[in-house]
Structure formats: structure tokens, C-alpha cells
């Protein structure tokens, strides 16, 4: 089979394209949560959880007050699972394949933190009780064993102007999206009118 000249098919080709890895890019990857990485996790109100399972890949948002992901020790993170839409794509994946990754974002900060590891789903009462908010316990807690952790430089955040750009125009509202995908069965205006109160009532 003839190899295409327009695609990268081997690691050797990729290395030639990108060039050598810098020393700091290698040294920043650690098998534990060091104090600097702990500070980033404790300042973050938002993370993206990536998982893999029989149905494919999933990346979904997780967010709460800064420090909502608890650094139990340098090898262990605790992530409460709050109320959601009950699809539970991430949790279903973790039952089949415990491997996972987290990407932590901090408002106003260019650097992000990446953590790779594997997770168990716990419903231990004493653990759930540690994460009560507004008198509501989480559905479960992910007990994450850290395998690697490393910070990502700010280039992507700077290029995207994520923290400095004005709100994007032309983005459809939740009501408009639901009206479109249901062929008008949902009224966009009414959905959007009730959405803020609905979110607050079901936040936890």
C-alpha cells in the first residue's frame, strides 16, 4: 500500500515534523501532585473529565466552587459527582474502563493542569458526607489515583483569548437549540425564560 505524502502515519514522521521535546516539557510531568500542582487544583472551579468505554470517548465538564476537587494526598484526588442529566456517560465509562484524565482551568490564568490516572466510584457514606452543599450530598465520589500530572503552558489560552475576549455573538441559547432539535416541540422563549430558575433549583 502506498503511503500518502499528505498524512503523518508514524511516530518518526511526527517527531520530524514537530522537532525535539524541550527538557522542561519532560521534567514537568510527575507521578504525583506536588505543592505547585496542588495550588492549581485548589484554585480551579472548573475541570473537564475525559473517559473511555465501550460506547466510545467522553469529555464532560465538572464545576463548583474553587477547590471542589479535593487533594487527599499526593497520589489521590476526590471528585464529587453532582446532580446532572442522568446520562452518566463518564460513570458508565469508568465502570468498564477506570482510566481517566482531568484538565483543570483557572479563570484569568493561562496555565492549565492535566492529571491522568484511574478512578473508582465510591458511595461510602462518610465520604459523601464530606461533600455536602446546600444540604445535598453528591450522588457519588470519584476516588482518583494519580498516575501523572503536569501543567500545560498558556499558548492555547492566549491564542483563544479565553479570559479576555468579549462574549461571542450569534451563539444560540439553550431554548433555541432545544427548539431546533425537537422540530419546534419545545418553545425556545419559554424554555429560556424558565432556565435560570430551573438551574438554580436543580444545582445540587
UniProtKB/TrEMBL annotation:
Pfam families per the UniProt record, alphabetical: PNPOx_N
InterPro entries xref list: Pyridox_Oxase_FMN-dep (IPR024029), Pyridox_Oxase_N (IPR011576), Split_barrel_FMN-bd (IPR012349)
Domain Pyridoxamine 5'-phosphate oxidase N-terminal: 35-153
NCBIfam families recorded: PPOX_FMN_DR2398
Protein name per the record: Pyridoxamine 5'-phosphate oxidase family protein
Amino acid at each position: 500500500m502506498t503511503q500518502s505524502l499528505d498524512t503523518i502515519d508514524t511516530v518518526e514522521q511526527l517527531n520530524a515534523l514537530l522537532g525535539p521535546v524541550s527538557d522542561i516539557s519532560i521534567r514537568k510531568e510527575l507521578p504525583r501532585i506536588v505543592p505547585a500542582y496542588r495550588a492549581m487544583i485548589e484554585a480551579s472551579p472548573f475541570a473537564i473529565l475525559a473517559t473511555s468505554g465501550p460506547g466510545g470517548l467522553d469529555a464532560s465538564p465538572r464545576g463548583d466552587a474553587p477547590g471542589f476537587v479535593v487533594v487527599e494526598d499526593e497520589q489521590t484526588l476526590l471528585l464529587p459527582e453532582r446532580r446532572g442529566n442522568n446520562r452518566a456517560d463518564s460513570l458508565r465509562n469508568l465502570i468498564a474502563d477506570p482510566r481517566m484524565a482531568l484538565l483543570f482551568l483557572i479563570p484569568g490564568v493561562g496555565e492549565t493542569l492535566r492529571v491522568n490516572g484511574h478512578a473508582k466510584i465510591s458511595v461510602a457514606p462518610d465520604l459523601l458526607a464530606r461533600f455536602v452543599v446546600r444540604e445535598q450530598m453528591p450522588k457519588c465520589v470519584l476516588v482518583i489515583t494519580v498516575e501523572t500530572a503536569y501543567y500545560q503552558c498558556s499558548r492555547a489560552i492566549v491564542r483563544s483569548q479565553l479570559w479576555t475576549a468579549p462574549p461571542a455573538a450569534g451563539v444560540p441559547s439553550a431554548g433555541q437549540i432545544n427548539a431546533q432539535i425537537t422540530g419546534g416541540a419545545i418553545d425556545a422563549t419559554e424554555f429560556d425564560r424558565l432556565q435560570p430558575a430551573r438551574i438554580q433549583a436543580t444545582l445540587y
